[in-house]
């Protein structure tokens, strides 16, 4: 059963008890030694070391850092990207638009509109080739069909020469 705090937040950080959550926060702030952190949460240094090796504690540290960064920087970054949409440089505008679309999940990390169109063309061409091969194997192709499939890109030798 997941622990849920008063405002409905869930995840590894919220599954920890108060002492472990405090340790996560203090480790994130990186201002105290491990000995001082252990003393602050009223535990031994060895206990803190054990916590730091625990998978749930590690996941909680990761979640906490994402939460802090999101709270501190996300809204400022979005505002800045929004302002960059009106930049003088079209390249800056394009980069800002791509970043906003990626953050919103509408554009994959390694994607651009041109790349997406090329991928769609490639998928359609591969579907056409597969369909033609199926028809060829099942005898559905007209004997007068002069379609030629090219499976070699010019200049690339794959060792299948049959000459």
Main β-sheet description: none
Report strand %.
under 5%
Supply the number of helical segments: 7
Q: SSE order in H/E notation?
A: HHHHHHH
Shape: elongated
Mean pLDDT: 81
Poorly predicted residue ranges: 1-6
Give the N-to-C terminal Cα separation: 69 Å
Structural class: mainly alpha
Helix content: 55-70%
Oligomer: single chain
Number of strands: 0
* Rg on CA atoms, Å: 28 Å
Characterise the protein shown here.
This protein is an all-alpha fold and 163 residues long. It contains 7 helices and no strands. Helix 3 packs across helix 4 and helix 5 (55-84) runs antiparallel to helix 6 (90-103). The chain is elongated and about 85 Å long.
Write the layout of secondary structure elements.
Layout: H1 12-15, H2 18-29, H3 34-40, H4 45-53, H5 55-84, H6 90-103, H7 113-138
Helix pairs in contact: 2-5, 3-4, 5-6
Throw out a few tags for this protein:
163 residues; mainly alpha; 7 helices; elongated; disordered N terminus
